[in-house]
Write a structure and sequence with these properties.
mainly alpha
Length: about 150
């Protein structure tokens, strides 16, 4: 689980609390979630607000905010989970993920990509320009980081 310190959460909360009344509304909560790369839908934000707003005043206080963020923070991915994910994408087991395998795997999880979107991913992550993603390139794509060797 990604861990946020109280100080980090306080800084985020204070930055969002425009009125300085020690509570944030639904729009500010949505901004906080996006700031933390959680990207909820409007319905998800509304549901989170309903769960956390224990005073029913359409706002959440700092303690409620901390509880919510910590409950919804993305978990750290393990190496084994990343390897398992790579193997699911690598349908033919050759140690690489080509454009067709990437498109097929993403479509199966409900994220249908256009040819252009897949090409864009390969432009960004296929660092050796061989037309396929090796394990390291795949890890960089999934984790959104650059683990160049």
């Amino acid at each position: 689980m990604v861990e946020f310190t109280d100080a980090e959460l306080r800084a985020i909360f204070n930055a969002l609390d425009k009125s300085r009344d020690q509570k944030i509304d639904k729009a500010e909560l949505a901004d906080a979630m996006r700031l933390l790369d959680l990207n909820p839908t409007s319905a998800e934000v509304r549901h989170m607000m309903e769960l956390c707003d224990t005073s029913f005043d359409h706002h959440i206080n700092f303690d409620e905010f901390c509880e919510l963020i910590r409950a919804h923070a993305p978990k750290k991915i393990t190496v084994q989970e990343l390897v398992d994910c790579f193997r699911k994408f690598d349908r033919d087991g050759n140690g690489f993920v080509d454009k067709q395998e990437l498109r097929r795997a993403l479509t199966e999880v409900g994220d249908s990509l256009t040819e252009e979107e897949v090409d864009d991913l390969f432009v960004e992550y296929d660092t050796n320009d061989d037309g396929k993603l090796d394990y390291l390139e795949f890890a960089n794509m999934i984790l959104g980081v650059d683990y160049s060797i």
